[in-house]
Write a structure and sequence with these properties.
alpha/beta; eight-stranded parallel beta barrel; 8 strands
Length: 294
Amino acid sequence: MALFKGAGVAIVTPMKENGDVHYEKLEELIDIQVKGGTDAIIITGTTGESSTMTEEEHVDVIRACVEFTKHRIPVIAGTGSNCTKTAIYLSQEAQKAGADGLLVVTPYYNKATQPGLIAHYTQIAQAVSLPIILYNVPGRTGCNLLPETVAYLYQHVENITGLKEATGNITQASKTMDLTDGRIDMYSGEDAVILPLLAIGALGVISVWSNVAPMDVHNLCQSFFDGDLETSRKLQRKGLALIDALFSEVSPIPVKKAMNLMGMEVGPLRAPLCEMSEAGAKKLEEVMKAYGLC
């Protein structure tokens, strides 16, 4: 059974002005998402700035998210690392914290080979019992998880059940679905192509867009599942300009800016990320006003 179907939010990690995690605000954001129809919370992912967290913070944030979500919807914890040992540790701690599943990004910087990726993911999966969603985002990691490798892992490692497909390459995604006989639980990692991936068999999205418009992203997916393709198409088209603005600078810079413009007060970014450029922020605000967000 899939971890979730529909719209999962790649939730931001709110920060205080001194850079500490703002746990009270995180609880507020989770409540907003649950009330907005979001189908799963994905914590400590790319959008959650996990790369600048200590291991202790990483685990504490996962634990807090599980507590705040109160089993209303699934919690999927990002536990990837460029070090297999660290990824195993974070995955085991996420399981102890009560997460429902794991999102494990490919190793970054060290550019593992495909056999290396198979060994990496197999070791992580054997160390836990939670279902694992592979996360392929070569634009950020410099490492592409090829369809043949995904298929091997899906077919040979019992608790590897899904893939966050963030290559932006529909052909690669289609080949992955074909090699897994359409059975892998695929989620779009690109908000601009949710509908195309649903059309080839994906179950939903792990979304940045959902941080600011959770109901629209949920409804885009649900209308597709209900057979209402026209509504799904309209919502995908409606979101395109906003999605473009949300990725006009390195994510999560724009989405945190957008949330602050909406009065959500999610705080600053952690270095080396910096505040959005003045020109970019102005354009983002214009797009948000046209969308109806501020």
